[in-house]
Amino acid sequence: MSLALSVGRRVMGQCAPNPAVGCVIVKDGRIVGRGCTAPGGRPHAETQALAQAGEAAQGATAYVTLEPCAHHGRTPPCADALVNAGIVRVVAPFRDNDARVSGRGFERLMAAGVEVTTGVMADEAGRDLAGFLMRNELGRPSVTLKLASSFDGRIATATGHSQWITGPQARRQVHAMRARHDAVMVGAGTARADDPTLTARDMGVTRQPVRVVVSRRLDLPLMSNLARTATAVPLWLCHGPDVDPALVEAWRGLGASLLPCAVTAGQVDPASCLQALGAQGMTRVFCEGGGALAASLISAGVVDELIGFTAGLAIGAEGLPGIGALGLARLDEAERFRLIETCPVGADVMHRWERI
After folding, report:
1. What is the rounded distance in angstroms from the CA atom of residue 311 to the CA atom of residue 45?
2. Which among 276, 21, 208 has a CA at the least distance from the CA of 133?
3. Residue 74: predicted pLDDT
4. How far is CA 166 from CA 120, 172, 179, 343, in A?
5. Are 62 and 90 a contacting pair, CB within 8 Å?
6. From 222's CA, which of 81, 119, 178, 352 has a CA 20 to 30 Å away?
């Protein structure tokens, strides 16, 4: 199962709205087939692994990181494919919470005499597939908030200078993280200040993540890198309902997609924004700030994972904080996160936290 999870991770960010599933087929203690969800979502992992195994699948065990599907979509059900190939045992962490499956895949397998074992590495699989499961249950993607900051938690000097706080190894790892998500999201302030492209570079990816900018009024430069590349790499703009229609048409003319969202307390409502992204098929969103957007996501309780890259320099109190005002009066009002990983990356330190 550990290998199946590793195989599935290879296509994170490449197969939304489908999950990044891995499948390993074992016979007589030997791996005879392995596969993952293909870029774009099809073929599914089981189909890929069965094609590699061929006749060796007869009498074998399939380790799959999610319950095999049981419905007819663009392809036949994977549960039927496993039965027809002669698989005698299927091991999976848990059932699929997609209403079209939700236990039916296991039922088909057991009805055909296939032994089904569940609960194997369920915590690890749940972490890998969190975005897919969350979209099915809550209608929104999972959110990872990444901040690169100084030792004292600043993301730029008082003048806005921020390139570069962290070193090249950390920046390269961020590009790899972008590639493993369906979308990369920033606020309007970051888009204006940094003029980013938000692409995953030097990673060999064939499918770039969708670039998402949250801007209530669409007050973004029309001659920016994002505007210039909107026809080459998807650009989605989440905006308020009262934007200038001329700006909407201008951005559509440049190739961007416009997603109107509700407004709360004078800014795009985070829950509305994420629901809009979920409706478009996004399962994993990688947010890179800035401070105002980070604060709104944390305040709304929709940040599922925090990733920090901390550099060994101090900028001082006059620098720009990584997270904007949260309006907290007491420490017990702050949402707590659990540390799951910390490691050096070049001259910097990377730390990952998950919501408790």
Report:
1. 39
2. 21
3. 66
4. 38, 10, 19, 14
5. yes
6. 178
241 token code pair: 């309902």
Is 7:34 a contact under the CB 8 Å cutoff? yes
pLDDT attached to residue 76: 83
How many degrees, rounded to 5, is the angle at CA 129 between CA 128 and CA 132?
150
Mean pLDDT over the full length of the chain: 95
Tokens of 162: 């921020």
CA dihedral for 99, 105, 106, 108, sign (positive or negative): positive
Per the DSSP assignment, residues forming a β-bridge with 184 are 211, 286
Residue 204 has pLDDT above 90, yes or no: no
Pick the catalytic residue from 46, 67, 288, 305.
46
d(CA 130, CA 146): 17
pLDDT in tens, 70-113: 876 667 899 999 999 999 999 999 999 998 899 999 999 999 99
Q: Residue length, the chain?
A: 356
Q: Above 90 in pLDDT, residue 29?
A: yes
Q: Has 46 been annotated as catalytic?
A: yes
User: Half-sphere exposure of residue 128, counting CA atoms within 13 Å on the CB side?
Assistant: 25
- CA 253 to CA 273: how far, in whole Å? 22
3-state DSSP assignment of residue 248: helix
Tokens at 91, concatenated: 């091991």
Query: Count H helices, E strands: the chain?
Result: 12, 18
In a 10 Å sphere around its CB, with 0-12 CB exposed, 13-18 middle and 19+ buried, how is residue 192 labelled?
A: middle
Rounded to the nearest 10 degrees, what angle do helices 270-279 and 291-299 cross at?
90
Alpha carbon distance 50, 34 (integer Å): 8
Give the per-residue pLDDT at 30. Answer: 97
Cβ neighbours of residue 40 under 8 Å, at least 6 residues apart?
14, 15, 207
Distance CA 34, CA 181 (A): 23
